[in-house]
Amino acid sequence: MRRFGVIMSIASTQPVRQNAKARRRGGFTLIESLLAMVVVGIGVLAFVDAQGAFTRSNDWSSKSATGMLLANEIREMTRTLNRHDPVTGLSTTGGWGQEGGETTILDIDDLDDLDGMTFGNGGTFEGPINSFRQVVTEINNDGSVMLDNGGDPMPLEGWMQRIIVEKVDPYNFLLVRSDTYAQPASATLPAIDADDFPLRVTVIVSYQGIDDTEAREITSVSWIVPR
Question: Is residue 226 within 8 Å of residue 198, measured between CB atoms?
Fold first, then answer.
């Protein structure tokens, strides 16, 4: 009987020890908890960084598309313009740039008038402009035109179109000639009048946001207008 009682006593203590051991194994140690927090933290930081990169990429894509659109608007506007003033032309004594009395955007009637001109963001004229020489306006989320405090349409904020017009050599478009340059006749090349050279037109579109200290170039488009 004693022997049986001892066996029963020993057997009865084994489940208690096993349960206590199971309870000790059921939780996390401090190191395990810290490691889990580190892993989760790294995952959260990676997600936040990826989200920020996506936002920046999306913002740049939107600005790049807008910049290309504004550059092409200028290109479309210039398609109907003569290279030089249809009345005075371009002589060796001058004639490059805006002629007398050309004070508004509607007075522009030739390509060399546009050299050095800027539209928008404190430029020569209000802008940016479209191919019809109209100011491109800000648009609200509902599709309506954004108005300023005076009730007038607000120009597209922060954008500027800058135009460079250069006279280039007809045999080498990378060679820029002076505004009054005329090519004399030679044994191999014919004479070319000052106003009979190709022109290279470049439109540089830049943007300056509210928090930007200076404007940054978004896109640049160049093309050659032949003789």
Answer: yes
What the block records as the tokens of 62 is 């939107």
d(CA 159, CA 209): 9
Of 142, 141, 140, 136, the C-alpha closest to 156 is 136
pTM of the model: 0.73
- Interatomic CA distance for residues 169 and 183, integer angstroms: 9
Sorted by where each begins, the domain ranges of the chain are 49-225
Tens of pLDDT, residues 107-154: 999 999 999 999 998 888 999 999 999 999 988 888 788 887 888 888
Residue 11 identity (one-letter amino acid): A
Question: Is there a contact between 214 and 208 (Cβ–Cβ < 8 Å)?
Answer: yes
Q: Which of 162, 171, 161, 163 is nearest to 226 (CA)?
A: 171
